[in-house]
């Protein structure tokens, strides 16, 4: 029996080592692929080894062990199979909501462990019970909050839900939940304790919903990243309750790494985390209606393509609109034609282009764009001044010069791409609509800027045709 | 079973793990933020091990139901997190050919 216990414990040690090492390798593009494989082996190993526990279960559970093992295998197959199928089949543009969904599931699993620890027959000390309640609270909030985030990103819930006194209501719900948690611990294994625990978990789920409802879609990536850190923390706490050091280490590593990622994301959007959680963006924007009254110039896709074909340097600024139009492939086709004609083409990526930091890189990579053509904002911002053409596709706020100049603008201070410094600008856009922040963009009215109106896919197809036509006629 | 010493050791583990997580992420290029969020999402899927332990030790129908749900959700976290991360990272490949050199006069555009 003692040998068995050592085997289970050591498997956790090896697994947590592999998981952390894998995560480390994932933090560089060169080793990233091997990183997830390393972490994957660690996870497979520890899950397989956890089945050794069936030889050392408590006396009360021994008569049920066959049923329990059957249930465990069934649950692994159903949960893993569904998620594997879903993860394989989902489109790359829908990745953020998938991450939210899978993160919510992890939070739910942590909450389930907490429910069993709080209501099960095993006697547990008061310290552990408090940790259980904390982990259950955080895990439940992560579950319900992630589901709301998923619904918002998936377009199932479009408007942020806000009402007067919302913050007070949220605070009351949160405090009541805490009180219920304390009562559940106080009444542990006594009449009414089970009911208190039940109400506590319901309250915790409600907290996650209340917290996420008022937040707008543009801020969802930050929120998902925050819930990712939450789940990590909950897993770490439940690891303590279950006396599983591997869960404690993996959970806490994700908890702190996720917190740092959240801060980095929020910084990229020039917002603080408390700003994302407790203030309502967009409300300020309504006042900033008085923009420049000039009309924007518009130009045909063919003319724009010809200009780029005979330019020597072109920088492309892609935004989420490109991904929505599913035009990454067409764009890269156009870029390859330009490169064949001797044009130096680069991609400039704003830290929050797409829906998450790095999301646009993934979308471009999917279209086959090599990552050494893709430049981060800091690396490319000084080059715009020497660039013939900047082509902006489906991006708006990340190139809005008001962020630099207009103190009254809600995006004032946000770091932006200096696309306005290029000699000529083309903006591919469906119409004169505004970006996610709902702010007017004076860039479109600049003298060196011309709009190419239309769906990105259609416009790029025309551009490809034009450049091909030029190549055959010369 | 849990003594003051093991409680303190747990705090040490939490502290060191928190520093580890911070260090692992702190110098990451922003192109990897989304894959890393997904990757760390996969790593906390290890909660499935805790859920398995709870399910194996279940002795009532209620515990079995909750344990079953926990394992199912945890397994979804693990497999989904892995698949999504793997798909994203598989796309990070360097260009096979060197990037086209900047050349060509903009006016003539002379190329055969």
From TrEMBL, chain A:
Compartment(s) of residence: Cell inner membrane
Keyword vocabulary terms for this entry: Cell inner membrane, Cell membrane, Membrane, NAD, NADP, Translocase, Transmembrane, Transmembrane helix
InterPro entries membership: DHS-like_NAD/FAD-binding_dom, NADH_DH_b, PNTB-like
Cellular component, GO, one term: plasma membrane
EC numbers for this chain: 7.1.1.1
Catalytic reaction annotation: NAD(+) + NADPH + H(+)(in) = NADH + NADP(+) + H(+)(out)
Coiled coil: none
Enzymatic class: translocase
Main location: membrane
Topology with respect to the bilayer: Multi-pass membrane protein
Function comment: The transhydrogenation between NADH and NADP is coupled to respiration and ATP hydrolysis and functions as a proton pump across the membrane.
Protein name in UniProt: NAD(P) transhydrogenase subunit beta
TrEMBL record, chain B:
UniProt entry keywords in alphabetical sequence: Cell inner membrane, Cell membrane, Membrane, NAD, NADP, Translocase, Transmembrane, Transmembrane helix
Example of a GO cellular component annotation carried by this entry: plasma membrane
Enzyme class, broadest EC rank: translocase
Domain of life of the native organism: Bacteria
Protein name: proton-translocating NAD(P)(+) transhydrogenase
Function as written in the Swiss-Prot or TrEMBL entry: The transhydrogenation between NADH and NADP is coupled to respiration and ATP hydrolysis and functions as a proton pump across the membrane.
Main location: membrane
InterPro entries in the record: NADP_transhyd_a_C
Compartments, record wording: Cell inner membrane
Chemical reaction(s) catalysed: NAD(+) + NADPH + H(+)(in) = NADH + NADP(+) + H(+)(out)
Topological relation to the membrane, as annotated: Multi-pass membrane protein
Domain NAD(P) transhydrogenase alpha subunit C-terminal residues, every copy: 11-93
Record-listed E.C. numbers: 7.1.1.1
């Amino acid at each position: 029996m003692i040998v068995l216990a050592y085997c289970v414990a050591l498997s956790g040690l090896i697994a947590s080592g592999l998981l952390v090492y894998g995560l480390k390798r994932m933090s560089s593009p060169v080793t990233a692929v091997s990183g997830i494989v390393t972490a994957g082996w660690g996870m497979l190993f520890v899950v397989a080894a956890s089945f050794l526990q069936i030889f050392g279960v408590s006396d009360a559970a021994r008569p049920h062990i066959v049923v329990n093992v059957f249930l465990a295998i069934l649950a692994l197959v159903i949960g893993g199979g569904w998620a594997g199928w879903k993860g394989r089949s989902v489109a790359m543009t829908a990745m953020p909501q998938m991450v939210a969904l899978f993160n919510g599931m992890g939070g739910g699993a942590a909450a389930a462990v907490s429910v069993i620890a709080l209501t099960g027959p095993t006697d547990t000390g008061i310290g552990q019970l408090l940790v259980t309640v904390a982990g259950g609270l955080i895990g439940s909030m992560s579950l319900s909050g992630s589901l709301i985030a998923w619904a918002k990103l998936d377009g199932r819930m479009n408007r942020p839900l806000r009402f007067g006194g919302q913050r007070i209501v949220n605070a009351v719900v949160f405090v009541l939940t805490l009180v219920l948690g304390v009562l559940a611990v106080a009444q542990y294994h006594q009449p009414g304790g089970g009911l208190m625990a039940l109400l506590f978990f319901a309250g915790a789920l409600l907290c996650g919903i209340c917290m996420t409802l008022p937040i707008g879609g543009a801020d969802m990536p930050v929120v998902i990243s925050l819930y990712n850190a939450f789940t990590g923390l909950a897993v770490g706490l439940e690891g303590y309750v279950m006396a599983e050091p591997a869960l404690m280490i993996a959970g806490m590593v994700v908890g702190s790494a996720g917190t740092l990622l959240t801060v980095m994301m929020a910084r990229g959007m020039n917002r603080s985390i408390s700003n994302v959680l407790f203030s309502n963006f967009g409300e300020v924007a309504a006042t900033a209606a008085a923009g420049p009254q000039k009309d924007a110039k518009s130009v045909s896709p063919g003319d724009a393509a010809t200009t780029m074909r005979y330019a020597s340097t072109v920088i492309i600024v892609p935004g989420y609109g490109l991904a929505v139009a599913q035009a990454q492939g067409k764009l890269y086709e156009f870029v390859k034609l330009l490169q064949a004609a001797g044009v130096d083409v680069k991609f400039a990526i704003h830290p929050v282009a797409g829906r998450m930091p790095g999301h646009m890189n993934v979308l471009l990579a999917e279209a086959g764009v090599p990552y050494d053509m893709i430049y981060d904002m800091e690396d490319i911002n000084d080059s715009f001044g020497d660039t013939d053409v900047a082509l902006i596709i489906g991006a708006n706020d990340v190139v809005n010069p008001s962020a630099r100049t207009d103190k009254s603008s809600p995006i004032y201070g946000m770091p932006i791409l200096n696309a306005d410094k290029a000699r000529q600008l083309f903006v591919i856009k469906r119409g004169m609509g505004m970006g996610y922040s709902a702010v007017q963009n004076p860039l479109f009215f600049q003298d060196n800027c011309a709009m190419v109106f239309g769906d990105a896919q259609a416009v790029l197809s025309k551009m490809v045709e034009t450049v091909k036509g030029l190549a055959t006629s010369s | 079973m849990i003594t003051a010493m093991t409680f303190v050791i747990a705090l040490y583990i939490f502290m060191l793990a928190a520093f580890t997580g911070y260090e692992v992420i702190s110098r990451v290029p922003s192109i990897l933020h989304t894959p890393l969020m997904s990757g760390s999402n996969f790593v906390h899927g290890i909660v499935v091990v805790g859920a398995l332990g709870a399910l194996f030790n279940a002795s009532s129908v209620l515990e079995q139901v909750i344990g079953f749900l926990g394992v199912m959700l945890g397994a979804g976290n693990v497999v989904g997190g892995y698949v999504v991360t793997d798909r994203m990272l598989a796309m990070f490949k360097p260009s096979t050919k060197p990037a086209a050199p900047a050349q060509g006069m903009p006016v003539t555009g002379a190329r055969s």
